[in-house]
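Quick illustration for those who missed Monday's session on complexes.
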Amino acid sequence: MTAARYDVAIIGAGVVGSAIARACAQYRLSVIVLEAGDDVGAGTSKANTAILHTGFDTKPGTLESRLVRRGYALLSTYGPTVGIPIERIGALLVAWDGEQHARFPEIVANARAAGYGAAREIGRDDLARLEPHLGPGAVGALAVPDEAIICPFTTPLAFATEAVVNGTTLRLGTAVEGRRPGADGTHVLATSRGEVAAEWVVNAAGLTSDTIDRLFGHEDFTVTPRRGELLVYDKLARPLVRHILLPVPTARTKGVLVSPTVFGNVVLGPTAEDVDDKRATGATPAGLAALVAAGRRLVPALVAEEVTAIYVGLRAATEHGDYQLRVHPAERYVCVGGIRSTGLTASMAIAEYVLEGLRDAGLRLVPREDHQAIRMPCLGEQGERPHRSAAAIAADPAYGEIVCHCERATRGEIRDALASPIPALGLDGVRRRTRALLGRCQGFYCGARVAAMVAEAHGTTIADVLGVPPVPR
Ligand SMILES: Cc1cc2nc3c(=O)[nH]c(=O)nc-3n(C[C@H](O)[C@H](O)[C@H](O)COP(=O)(O)OP(=O)(O)OC[C@H]3O[C@@H](n4cnc5c(N)ncnc54)[C@H](O)[C@@H]3O)c2cc1C
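Prediction with flavin-adenine dinucleotide bound:
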């Protein structure tokens, strides 16, 4: 059987691969996205701190620094047009001793060199006024007024939805396992669901981008996963924190921070620990203890609040200090590896960079005249969610019928998520598209109803949706 043939095959539908697919969809190209998992954004992209970074603390002159600055600008503009929740609440980088305080001029100078000029020092009293629940002993802070929080779920889904609505083929549950040259100069990718031929291949495989790179004959880097554990505190904790509270970074990590989320919670994390297993997304007693200790110092009242959830993400760290982004024109192959701790922010800029590389390497980019815009459902606590909209409820009473009471997710939103251009296939998919099951009860009350809706939408059983094995007879 002849393999289906595309102009571009993108491996991986995380936030980076999805952003690249969206950028390709602006042009008359045939594009396929091959994703091993069962949803978009279900790898590292679902488990991060969800900060839209200004890049003030990036290393000037690196590609990462440039793309984070550019990505911040692109996403700040794109987000509101498609409904990605973004709140520009600003960050305070807090010094807890004289040594940390003495580093402020160096951090401000670094920020300027990285292209961010608005960082300014504030004194102890102003800091106490701005953050009344901060722990004792802070000696001052650097205000970074443009740091923002963003929805980590809507962002990749918006990119991928725009791509799919504009003709991109998205193949989920499809792992790329091999590659051979095709007769007509194409790449033939062997996948878990058959062969796919493409003129160009973009490797956006996150943690396994090094393995894919080797399929193309390169050994430029090795990914060593850097585990980050995070605690999500209940919405009752939200009044305790007004800004993103950052520690003074070290050479290895930005450290443990406290931040509000766009869902109205507070997140504490992440840890940073190199591990050798790319599936090591379990929380550890040591990691959680370290987080609680850090939280007790930063905002002591926070650690007395209830924890809603714990999650763990793996950064695709490499032996290099920068992104591993390489266009190989002769091979018609692009590697987008080593996108470790800033990929959510930089995603659109990475996509722009890749598209420029493809064009320079000879791919013809003809703009589509029939490009369709999209609008994502509102997940942000500050936005007008359907249950708060009299007009939405009047037009469709399903938006007035709350299924998940913790997060106020309605039957209408869950129904829509199950029938969207990239439908939720299971409970996690519903969670990331509606916030249902994300709240303090973690689905204890609404789980069965949501599972029944998923089962009905996909013609399966509740037991299948819940992953319950059949009872032996
Ligand atoms: C703890 C933590 C905190 C972070 N905080 C922030 C933050 O605040 N702000 C920020 O901007 N960034 C942050 N990041 C970084 C950001 O989350 C990542 O840079 C980004 O998600 C990387 O996206 P990606 O698409 O490259 O990788 P992924 O999301 O991992 O996507 C790669 C995809 O490729 C698929 N794949 C892999 N191999 C194959 C294959 N063989 N065939 C088909 N598909 C394959 C995977 O299933 C996966 O879905 C953080 C990361 C972590 C871990």
